Amino acid sequence: MQTANDVVTVDRRRALAFRARRHELTPDPEPTRDALDVALLDYGVQDTGPDGSSWALVLRGAATPTGDELALAWTLRGAPHAYRRRDLAAVAVATAPYSEADARKRVFDASKPLKDAGIDVLDALRKVASEERDIVRRPTSKGELSTKLTTRLDQPYLRWCRVCQATHAYEQPFRLAALQGGLELEPGSSPPVLRRIPGLRAPLYRRLADEAEPAFDVVRGYLRFYGPARITDAAAFIDAPVAEVKARWPDDVVEVRIDGEHGPKGASRFVLADDVDALAGSDPVQGALLLGPFDPYLQARDRELLVADEAARKELWRTIGRPGGVLVDGEVVGFWRPRTAAGRLALDVTAWARPKAAARAAVEAQAERLAAHRGVAFAGVTWT
After folding, report:
1. Tens-digit pLDDT profile for residues 301-325
2. What structural domains does the chain harbor?
């Protein structure tokens, strides 16, 4: 950690510009590189929603991924993420818990019945991972896996689900154990289909996240892609206890103060020391982008930095029916929703302030680009 004399001060716009450039966001409609070269694949690109990780990669200048070089796995927060297939073994280590306390936090409501039964959560996760791997000898739907898994687990592992009107394993252990059992998600499957990862020797939580390679370390990764970052934000992103993240906060960091920000005492921000010059010299990405509802850029836990207005934040980050974000010249200026009918895609775009004609044209060009990505005709944009 740095002394008060070593604090770097930047304005909000430059801090966001640094982050957007670390995310490699570009409005260029022509792909310039292979998807495997996108840096965020070290950290995982969430694959949620109709456009998922593929659109997020396109927005980072990549050609639409093809072939089998990318793989999907349930990792941080139990969400599906895309990674380079060659990195899956390293990702399994990096996204494992750091400790028993961390494991208890990540499995949420599954922790108490296991604790009451005298079962360590890490041991429970090993058990679930082992059973899932044994069951999945061929591509297996989530429902089939859940049904078979339930018959193999004792009561502390199970819960009554009011939605399903059935007893099955707690959701987070079910998801978090899958990659540890050497399982990936079949792309495009809904409901999800799991299958064995060819050539991957299942870690089964033999190695925890303290053994992660630096490129895949999830605490360091948050600083790398979401700096200037606070410890509490990194903990929320990872779903780990603040104390666990604080204990693993890198030493090679520099404290950053954002002009005009008055956070709670102790809520200091940091960047990696090697990133200070890039932070000071970053300029906003020019042009417009239609970020997916779960685009990595919108996954930062300091939402008040991205969108200052509280009412606007509530619109953009809805719990149910979350829209996508509209990014114009480095600022999130509104949100968008798709309407698809008869093979045609139209977008409803809401801007929080009246956009200039150039911004409207840029957004509409990106909407046409999204339609092409989905393989449907473009039916225009309606502004509200």
Report:
1. 999 999 999 999 999 999 999 999 9
2. 4-12+212-281 (1.10.10), 35-210 (no CATH), 288-383 (no CATH)
